Structure formats: C-alpha cells, structure tokens
C-alpha cells in the first residue's frame, strides 16, 4: 500500500514539473513575440513616426498580463523547489533560470513602456505649458533610456532612435522655456551702440513680468518660478542665471557704482516691475560708498523679492522640497566682479589723503559691513568677510599707498613746472642733507632693540642704508644744474654721507649675524661634544641639537626671503651654515675614541645636515628658481667639502682612507691636515699593523 502511494505521488510530481516546463516554454515564446511587437512598435513610432497609440495600449495590457503570470510561476517554482529539492533540484533550477531570463526581457519591455508613457505625458504637459511637469517626464524618460543602454542585449538601432527622440524633445522644451524667459525678463536698450554714456544708461530698463496674463496673446503665461524650476530640472539653470547675472552687472550694477549722479528707480505697475535710471545733479567727482551701497541694495532687494525668492524642488524621486537659495547662486556668479567694481570705482577714491581724516573713514567701514550683512540676509552672500570688507578695513596700507602716490604726483607736477627753476634751492638743499643726517642718527637709536632682536628688520634696515648710499653717490650731480649758482661750484654733493650709511647698514647686519652665530653655537653646545653616541641619551641630545640648528637656519632663510639681495642672502646663509658645520667637524675630529656604533650614528647625523643643509638656500619665493642656488652650496660654504670627506672617513676602511690621502695630493689632504687625519684614524681604528702602516703614509 505504501509503495503504491509513493508511486502515485512521484507520478504527480513529474506531471507538475512537465506542466511547469510546458507553461514556461509557452511563456518564453510569448515573451519573444511581444518583444518583437514592442520593438516593431517603437521602431515605427520613433524611427518611421507612424501613429500607433492603440496598438501600444494593447501591448501594455499584454505585458502586464505576462508579468502577472511570470510572478505566479516564479512563486510556484520556488515552493516546488523547496518541497522537492532532494529529488529534482537540477530540473527546477533550469526552469527558474529560464524564467529569470524571460523576466529580464520583460523588464526591458517595461522600461520601453515607461519611456513611451513619459514622452506622451511630456507632450501633453508641453501643450498645456506645464513646463515643470514636462521637464520631470523628460528626466524620467532619460532614466529609462539609461537603464536600457546598460543592458547589452538590446537592439542598438532602437536605442539610437530613442536617444535622438529624447534629444529633440529636450531641445524643444528648452526653446519654449527660452521664449517664455524672454517674455518674463525683458531688457530695453537705447538705439545707439554706445552703452557706456550717461544718456544710454538713462534709456536702459529691466522689466520683470510677475503675473500670468500676457496682453498681446491673451493667454496665461507661466510664472517666473515655474520657468526657473523647469530650467533647474533640465540642468540649465546655472547657465541661464549666469547670463542674466552678467547683463545685470554690465547694464545696472556697474553704472550705479561708477556714476555719482545715477540713481535706480523702481516702478511697480500691474503685472510688471520696472527697474530704470534717473540722473540727479551732484558736485561729487566720484560716488560715495554709502550711497552706492544703498542704490545696489535697492536693486538686489527687488530682484530677490520678485525673481529669486522661491524654493527649488531638487529631489524629484522622493518628492521632497529642499530650499535652494537662487539669490546665493546669482551672488556666487557676480560677487567677485561686483566687489572688484566697487573697489575700483568707489572705495579707492574714498581713502583719505590726510591723517586727520582717518577717523572719518570708520563710517565707510561701517557702511561696508552693513551692506554685506544686508546681502547675507537676502542670501546673496554666504560665509565670512569678503574681499570688499577686507579692502575697506585695510585702511592703513591704502592710506600709505595713496600718500606715496600723491607725493609722486606732486613731485612730477613740480618737476614739469617752469616756475620752480626761479626758486632758490639753498635752504632746500641743506634741508635734504639734514633729513639724511636725521635718518642716520635717529633710526638706529630709536629702533635699536628691534634691530637686534628681529632679523627681518635688520635686513630691511641694511637694504635701506645701502639704497640711500647708492643714490647719494649721484644725487648731487643729478640736480646740480637746477640748483642755485652758489651750490654749483662743487659743494652740492652728498658723497661725503655715503661711507656713513654703508657702515650703518653693514654694522647692523653684522651684529645680527653675530647674534645668529651665537644661537647656533649655543644649540650645538647641547650635543655633548658628539661623544659616546652608543648611549641613547647622548645620541638623542646630539640629534636634537642638529635638528634645532637646521630649523633655525630654515626659519631665518624664510624671514630673509625676498628681502635681501640674492648675493647677500646666499653669502649670509652660507656663512651661518659654515659656522655650524665647522663646529660639528671640530667636535668630531677632537674625539679620541669612536666605536663602530658611534661612527654609524655620527654618520647618520652628518647625513641629515648634508641632505637638509642645501634647503636653507631659498632666496626667492618661487621654489623652482631656488634649485640653482641649492646646487651651489660648496661655493657659499667653504667647509662643505671637508664635511663630506669627514662623512666618508666615518664609513671608510683604512685602505680607502689611504687612497683618498694619495700622498698628500688627494681630496682628503685638501680637506684636512695630516695631524687631523691621523687623529681620526687613531680614534676610528684599533692599534694594528695595518693602522700603523697607513699612519706612516700620512705625512
């Protein structure tokens, strides 16, 4: 009885598997038929452009029915596989794989269906001027096409047709959006080509249409927000805003910043806001910063309210609205040019020429801060202080620059004037000499402490003294013919002051050099004479001393960079590095016993100096140009080659040392005396016959 039941159940399982196989085969054939029909329909619709809406709807129904059948079969197969896994795993697996292949094909057909639906909905939205919806449908079609392209098994001709259709429709909606933009944002310019005159500015207007009614066509117009949002969905908002920002800067903001008499006028009419100019008479040659800030702020407030104050829906898939400040986007595009324009046409002319007026400049700094804060509230600006406010706050530097410029202009006017030739210059001549005497006596005394402590100031003072001395050589001769007759007999000279100024600059810089040398030697004194390097504490102290010396030299090189002339810089740094190397050489050659470990560690310390020493030669701020001077270290550091020979001896054998001595003619003999070499050999090597033989050769 049990065997009969088993036989019946087995026969039933085979029937079910055979039934599943038959149904899947039938489904596969049906999927292929529908695939062919869909491809044919897509080809006709997008390649041959034949109307096929009715057949497409029928195909959609068939695809949905097939999808339901496949899902039902898939769940049934999974349950059958789990139940009869030990009997027919292979058969059911094959059936499932075939079904999955059919599912992939069906998925592609669904993507084609979604693409077609998205295009149809896009066309309807475009007809109704629902540009945001149309742009969203195009993006959905783009996603479908991207997924289809990722499948390698699809017909390339159909994909090409779909891509072409998508491109055409995108350009079509961009054209319509451009037309709407030109209706909503209208620029009116003067008929003349000259757009930089006051008359042309007064004929320039910007019209912002803020309602839907268009007077000529009597048809509703989409709001500005809808057009901008559609541009955003299509990824074209940035370029559109950039173009608008450049025109805004050129035709409205820049004229307001450069013309004192020009003022912005805002006219509000039904459905429209107009920005235009009017001219008000003024005696100002250059515009006042506070007035310019007020005028520009007025224009930006109107734009922020009428054009830029709405959120952008950037997350289409999840339908979440995230506020993207359009004002900030526009501000990023135009702020750099606008701030540069405000500085050149406005702030630069507000810098006082008299120190008594510096206090009044605080009002301009305050108005600049208020202007930036207002722009930040409107979201045009983000972050911290910008270049505009930094420029306004840096009044001391600008005042000094302007004072120098005014002096130069006054001097030029004086030199080009004919009347100054008739003025007696005796008193002026002696006043000039007194000024030089005053500099010679006062500056080194008043700034004595800083000149001793700060190497950069010492270098600048050295430069000043040498510069003055250079010009004193020719100053008297240069103006001799313009002086009074009493001064033209050879007494009109400043040459006698030259030695004093040269000595003044040299003594100051040499005093700084002596101070730096003292610091270097003091740091090296903590190296414990470089003895017993096998002791970790001694080695750590020596390594620290070497690092401190190199750090001091590098820091000094940066401080003197672009201050000292290159030749003076290299000589000074070479002298200081030579001092440090000479001290190291002296300490090592004085050692009486150097073990193998000591030699290795001393070599490591010397190699650090050898590798990093050239880096202190950086006379120019551009790193690539310093390589030339770093390769010429032996020219500026006399002990550089002896230092290399010392490193060689710390690692060399007796034979190598003897070869480099070469009977007093080798490189070792050029670097060290015979007594120094013998002392090093005795410290490095044990007393053997070989050592005695080498010592005998060194004479």
What features would you describe in this structure?
Residues 177-415 form the Centromere/kinetochore protein zw10 middle domain. Residues 27-119 form the Centromere/kinetochore protein zw10 N-terminal domain. It is a peripheral membrane protein. With 699 residues, this protein is mainly α. The chain folds into three domains: 2-173, Methane Monooxygenase Hydroxylase, Chain G, domain 1; 189-398; 512-697, Tetracycline Repressor, domain 2. Helix content is 70%, strand content 5%. The protein is built from 27 helices and six strands. The protein has helices at residues 2-48, 53-83, 85-127, 131-150, 156-184, 198-202, 224-233, 237-258, 289-308, 326-345, 361-377, 387-393, 395-416, 426-446, 448-453, 455-478, 498-524, 536-559, 566-589, 596-612, 627-630, 633-636, 640-651, 654-661, 667-671, 674-684, 689-697, and strands at residues 185-188, 205-209, 262-269, 272-279, 312-315, 320-322. The chain has a four-stranded antiparallel sheet. Strands 5-6 form a two-stranded antiparallel ribbon. A hairpin with a 2-residue loop joins strand 3 and strand 4 (272-279). The longest helix is centred in the N-terminal third of the chain and has 47 residues, at 2-48. It is flat. Residues 1-15, 49-53, 213-219 and 314-322 have low confidence and may be disordered.
């Amino acid at each position: 009885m049990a065997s009969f039941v088993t036989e019946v159940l087995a026969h039933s399982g085979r029937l079910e598997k055979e039934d599943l196989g038959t149904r899947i085969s039938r489904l596969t054939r049906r999927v292929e038929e529908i695939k062919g029909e869909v491809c044919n329909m897509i080809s006709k619709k997008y390649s041959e452009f034949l109307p096929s809406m009715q057949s497409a709807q029928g195909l959609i129904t068939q695809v949905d029915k097939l999808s339901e059948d496949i899902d039902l079969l898939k769940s049934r197969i999974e349950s059958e596989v789990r139940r009869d896994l030990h009997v027919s795993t292979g058969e059911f697996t094959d059936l499932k794989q075939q079904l999955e292949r059919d599912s992939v094909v069906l998925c592609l057909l669904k993507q084609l269906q979604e693409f077609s639906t998205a295009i149809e909905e896009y066309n309807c939205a475009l007809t109704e001027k629902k540009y945001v919806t149309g742009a969203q449908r195009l993006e959905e079609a783009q996603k479908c096409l991207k997924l289809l392209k990722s499948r390698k098994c699809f017909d390339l001709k159909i994909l090409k047709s779909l891509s072409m259709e998508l491109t055409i429709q995108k350009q079509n909606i961009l054209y319509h959006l451009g037309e709407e933009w030109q209706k909503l944002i209208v620029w009116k310019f003067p008929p003349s080509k000259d757009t930089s005159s006051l008359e042309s500015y007064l004929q320039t207007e910007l019209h912002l249409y803020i309602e839907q009614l268009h007077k000529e066509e009597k048809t509703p117009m989409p709001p500005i927000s809808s057009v901008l949002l559609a541009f955003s969905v299509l990824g074209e908002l940035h370029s559109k805003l950039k173009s608008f920002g450049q025109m805004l800067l050129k035709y409205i903001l820049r004229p307001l910043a450069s013309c004192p008499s020009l003022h912005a006028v805002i006219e509000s009419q039904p459905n429209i806001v107009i920005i235009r100019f009017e001219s008000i008479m003024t005696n100002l040659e250059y515009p006042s910063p506070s007035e310019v800030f007020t005028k520009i702020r007025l224009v930006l407030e109107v734009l922020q309210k009428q054009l830029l104050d709405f959120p952008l829906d950037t997350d289409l898939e999840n339908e979440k609205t995230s506020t993207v400040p359009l004002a900030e986007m526009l501000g990023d595009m135009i702020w750099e040019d606008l701030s540069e324009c405000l500085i050149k046409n406005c702030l630069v002319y507000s810098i006082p020429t008299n120190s008594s007026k510096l206090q009044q400049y605080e009002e301009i700094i305050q108005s600049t801060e208020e202007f930036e804060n207002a722009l930040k509230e409107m979201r045009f600006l983000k972050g911290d202080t910008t270049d505009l406010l930094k420029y306004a706050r840096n009044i001391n530097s600008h005042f000094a620059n302007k004072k120098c410029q005014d002096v130069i202009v006054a001097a030029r006017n004086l030199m080009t004037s004919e009347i100054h030739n008739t003025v007696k210059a005796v008193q002026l001549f002696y006043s000039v000499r007194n000024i030089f005497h005053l500099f010679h006596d006062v500056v080194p005394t008043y700034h004595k402490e800083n000149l001793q402590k700060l190497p950069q100031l010492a270098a600048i003072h050295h430069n000043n003294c040498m510069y003055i001395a250079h010009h004193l050589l020719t100053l008297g001769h240069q103006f001799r013919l313009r002086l009074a007759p009493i001064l033209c007999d050879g007494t009109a000279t400043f040459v006698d002051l030259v030695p004093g100024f040269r000595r003044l600059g040299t003594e100051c810089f040499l005093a700084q050099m002596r101070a730096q040398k003292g610091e270097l030697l003091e740091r090296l004194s903590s190296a414990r004479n470089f003895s017993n390097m096998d002791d970790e504490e001694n080695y750590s102290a020596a390594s620290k001393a070497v690092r401190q010396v190199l750090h001091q030299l590098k820091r000094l090189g940066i401080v003197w960079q672009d201050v000292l002339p290159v030749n003076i810089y290299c000589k000074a740094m070479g002298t200081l590095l030579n001092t440090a190397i000479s001290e190291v050489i002296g300490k090592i050659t004085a050692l009486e016993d150097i073990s193998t470990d000591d030699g290795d560690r001393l070599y490591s310390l010397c190699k650090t100096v050898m590798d990093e020493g050239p880096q202190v030669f950086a006379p120019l701020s551009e790193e690539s140009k310093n390589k030339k001077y770093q390769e010429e270290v032996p020219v500026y550091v006399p002990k550089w080659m002896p230092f290399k020979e010392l490193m060689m001896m710390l690692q060399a054998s007796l034979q190598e040392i003897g070869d480099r001595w070469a009977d007093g003619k080798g490189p070792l003999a050029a670097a060290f005396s015979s007594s120094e070499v013998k002392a090093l050999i005795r410290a490095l090597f044990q007393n053997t016959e070989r050592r005695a033989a080498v010592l005998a050769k060194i004479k």
